[in-house]
Structure formats: structure tokens, C-alpha cells
């Protein structure tokens, strides 16, 4: 599964004074002003930068050896003036950064898999996405896309794998909450489809210029980390959903057994669904495109959307675009939008993709809309997984803040996610669709 399920989320305010400790979580010794000064000098390309002070907020901490922890850091710094001229003196500046660091004490296979994920994200943030954005800004400036994700300030693999990026929240980006709903309305969902299509088209353009640009994203390691744990998790999830559906009048007798039949083979089906077919239409996919990984920026009125960015690319890979489409469509729009505008959103994506590919003058031929819909059905097991795991979280009252795969208390109480009225209503709409597409066979 994605790394977002491997991390225990906690929020605790700390500062860089006294013992550098908050509760039972102690900040790493290397996270000091010298390290932050190096980050700012590299990120700003200015060796004169001097860090004056900083504060740290723990974003997510995990004690598991191969998981990723995050820190939000506010850095106050100044630059050396170029001369004694008063016009060259600059005021102190403040930046907010996000640091993602892997916890590892050895070089076992699981540790190496996680290092690969971070190495891949470093490559993507520092080289691939800037290359895509350069093409977009040159060939399609009217798109209005400022950049697809946060700017990479600094990264390293030794002595510890980590990435430092700008904090988008301090730049006005936030998780959407249109009209108080958990999920995206049609306006937000439509913009996601258009930006996603532009991102996919841009990846085709850079691949045609340099096929080796996608070599970092060809491996599929999504189910290698904690493989037995993921298998157990999925089997238990299928059982819980089947048990819950069994209590629904008019649905239990029809669908419960069919869902239960997926218990032993859903993982293998999903693995086949996400595996790249070199003969098919492929793009660089985000791989974890859902509600929590899409940040929006609004205009001065606070109502109009001015921009959006994607975050958390650790699961990115070169594969079929329907992976992103299913991940998003079966998790993130509100139920009414998904049920009434599924085909409309798919067509928005398709028409945007074809249009932008034309702007980029690529040689790759896009699929027809019919071919795209057939691919959605062919890889539909992935959509089932998303509907069983992410959809109930998005429809829940709280943001995902638990380590689902490693927290036994959460696993025992997960059933409550499937028994909410919102999830019941959404899944009742989806089950006939899954059956019609032959996904229970």
C-alpha cells in the first residue's frame, strides 16, 4: 500500500529550545540550525544565507524502522547584503518547510524498498516535474498552472534519506472542504481532471524527448512493503465490507457472498491492474491521488479556485492513466457527483488530455474514449480496492490519522467506517456498477 498508511499521524507543537522534546517524541539531533542553513542555501542558491532561529511542528511520527516521519519547520533567516549601500540591505525573511525523512537502521530488503521510494520522489520533485512544468509553461501557458507540486528545497540519501519541500499551506493551499462536505463537488473535481490530464500529457512529452526519463518509475513496489501485512489487511477489509453489506436489506443476499469471494484474490487482481502494459497507453501517474493529496488555492473572495497542487508522490509510477482516474473517482468526489457525473468527469479528462497532447505536438496517439472506458473496466479491481479502503475514510467524520496496517486497535474498530450512512449510500450505488462490469466474477 501507499506510505500514507504506514505513518501514525500526530499533531504536537514544539520549539527548538530546552531538550528538543515533546511528550515522548524527541526531535532528531541533526534537525538543527546548521542543517536548515544548508537547506536554505541550497534551495535559494545563496551561500550568504544565515539562519537566525527556527521552530518545528511534528507532522507525523512513526517508530517503525522503515516508515516515514514528517516535520513542519519555520525558518527565519537573513542574507548578506551585496554592498554597504542601504538599498542592498534586505529584511529578515521567513520560510515554512516540510521535511520527510525515513527511519532506517539497516539495509534489509524492506528498508531498501523504502529508500527506493524516497529516491524516486527526489527524482520526481527535483527533475521530472520541473521538466513537465517547463513544457507546460512554454507550450500551454494559458493553462494557468503555476506548478504541479511543492518546490524541492533540498534532498539527500546519505546519511539519511530525506526530502525538504516548501510548505504549501503557508502559500495559501489547503485541503478542500466545499460547503462543509467530506469530498469534492463538481467544480473541484472538474479542475482535478483538467490538471491531471495536463500532467499526464506533459509526462508523454518528456518521455518522447528522453525515454530514460521514466526509468525511475517503472518498478511496482506498492505491495512489497510489509507484503504479508498488506495481504492480511486486504483480506480483513473484504471480510468486514462483506459482513457489513450482509446486514443491508435488499443487498446482503445479493452482494455479500460476491464480495466475500474477493477475499483471497483481490490483492493479486489489484497487482495485475496496476502493472504496466508496455503495449498500452502509459503516462506518469501520481499513484495516490485522493482527497488528502490534493491542495487547492482560492481567490480573494475565498470561493473561486485559483490553483491546485498534488502532494505525496512516493507512489508515482509509469503506467496506465486509469490508475489515477480510479483512485480519484472512487474516493474523492461527493457521492452525488460520482453517481451523476462519473462519465462527464471522465470525458473532461479525456478531452483535456487530447487537447493538451495536441498542444505539445507529441507523436503518441491518445486512446479513443471507448478504449479509455474499456481500460477502466479491465483494471476495475483497483477501483474496488479504493472503494473498500479510501472511500469510507473520505466519507468519515475525521481525517485519516491512524496507522491502519500496524495499529491493532484501529484494525479491530475499523468496522465503524463501513457502517456509516454516507458510506452505505455510496457503496449501494457502486455495487451494481461493479457487478455490471464483471468485477465480482
UniProtKB/TrEMBL annotation:
Q: Mind telling me which InterPro entries this protein's record contains?
A: CHK_kinase-like (IPR015897), EcKL (IPR004119), Kinase-like_dom_sf (IPR011009)
- Gene3D superfamilies found in the cross-reference section: 3.90.1200.10
Q: Where is the CHK kinase-like domain?
A: 163-359
Q: Name the Pfam families for this protein.
A: EcKL (PF02958)
**Lineage: superkingdom:** Eukaryota
- Spell out the PANTHER family in the cross-references: CHK KINASE-LIKE DOMAIN-CONTAINING PROTEIN-RELATED, PROTEIN KINASE-LIKE DOMAIN-CONTAINING
Protein name in UniProt: Uncharacterized protein LOC107270730
Species of origin: Cephus cinctus (Wheat stem sawfly)
Source taxonomy = Eukaryota, Metazoa, Ecdysozoa, Arthropoda, Hexapoda
Gene this protein is translated from: LOC107270730
Amino acid at each position: 500500500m501507499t506510505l500514507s498508511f504506514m505513518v501514525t499521524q500526530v499533531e504536537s507543537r514544539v520549539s527548538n529550545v530546552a531538550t528538543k522534546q515533546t511528550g515522548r517524541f524527541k526531535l532528531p539531533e541533526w534537525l538543527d540550525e546548521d542543517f536548515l542553513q544548508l537547506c536554505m542555501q541550497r534551495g535559494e542558491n545563496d551561500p550568504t544565507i544565515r539562519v537566525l532561529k527556527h521552530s518545528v511542528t511534528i507532522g507525523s511520527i512513526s517508530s517503525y524502522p522503515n516508515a516515514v516521519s514528517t516535520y513542519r519547520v519555520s525558518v527565519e533567516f537573513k542574507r548578506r547584503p551585496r554592498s554597504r549601500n542601504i538599498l542592498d540591505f534586505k529584511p529578515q525573511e521567513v520560510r515554512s518547510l516540510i521535511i520527510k525523512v525515513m527511519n532506517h537502521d539497516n539495509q534489509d530488503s524492506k528498508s531498501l524498498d523504502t529508500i527506493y521510494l524516497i529516491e524516486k520522489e527526489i527524482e520526481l520533485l527535483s527533475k521530472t516535474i520541473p521538466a513537465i512544468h517547463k513544457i507546460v509553461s512554454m507550450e500551454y501557458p494559458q493553462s494557468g498552472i503555476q506548478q504541479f507540486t511543492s518546490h524541492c528545497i533540498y534532498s539527500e540519501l546519505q546519511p539519511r534519506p530525506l526530502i525538504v519541500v516548501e510548505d504549501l499551506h503557508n502559500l495559501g493551499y489547503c485541503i478542500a472542504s466545499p460547503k462543509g462536505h467530506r469530498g469534492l463537488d463538481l467544480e473541484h473535481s472538474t479542475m482535478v481532471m483538467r490538471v491531471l490530464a495536463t500532467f499526464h500529457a506533459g509526462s508523454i512529452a518528456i518521455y518522447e524527448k528522453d525515454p530514460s526519463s521514466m526509468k525511475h518509475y517503472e518498478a511496482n513496489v506498492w505491495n512489497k512493503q510489509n507484503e504479508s501485512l498488506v495481504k492480511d489487511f486486504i483480506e480483513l477489509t473484504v471480510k468486514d465490507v462483506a459482513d457489513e453489506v450482509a446486514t443491508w436489506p435488499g443487498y446482503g443476499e445479493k452482494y455479500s457472498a460476491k464480495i466475500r469471494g474477493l477475499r483471497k484474490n483481490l490483492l493479486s487482481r489489484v497487482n495485475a491492474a496496476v502493472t504496466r502494459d508496455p503495449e498500452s497507453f502509459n503516462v506518469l501517474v501520481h499513484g495516490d491521488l485522493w482527497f488528502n493529496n490534493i491542495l487547492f488555492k482560492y481567490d480573494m473572495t475565498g470561493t473561486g479556485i485559483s490553483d491546485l497542487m498534488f502532494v505525496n508522490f512516493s507512489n508515482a509510477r509509469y503506467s496506465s492513466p486509469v490508475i489515477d482516474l480510479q483512485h480519484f473517482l472512487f474516493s474523492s468526489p461527493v457521492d452525488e457527483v460520482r453517481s451523476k457525473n462519473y462519465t462527464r468527469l471522465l470525458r473532461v479528462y479525456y478531452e483535456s488530455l487530447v487537447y493538451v497532447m495536441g498542444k505539445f505536438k507529441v507523436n503518441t496517439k491518445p486512446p479513443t474514449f471507448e478504449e479509455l472506458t474499456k481500460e477502466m473496466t479491465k483494471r476495475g479491481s483497483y477501483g474496488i480496492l479504493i472503494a473498500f479502503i479510501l472511500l469510507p475514510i473520505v466519507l468519515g467524520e475525521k481525517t485519516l490519522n491512524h496507522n491502519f496496517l500496524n495499529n491493532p486497535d484501529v484494525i479491530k474498530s475499523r468496522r465503524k467506517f463501513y457502517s456509516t450512512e454516507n458510506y452505505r449510500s455510496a457503496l449501494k450505488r457502486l455495487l451494481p456498477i461493479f457487478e455490471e462490469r464483471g468485477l465480482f466474477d
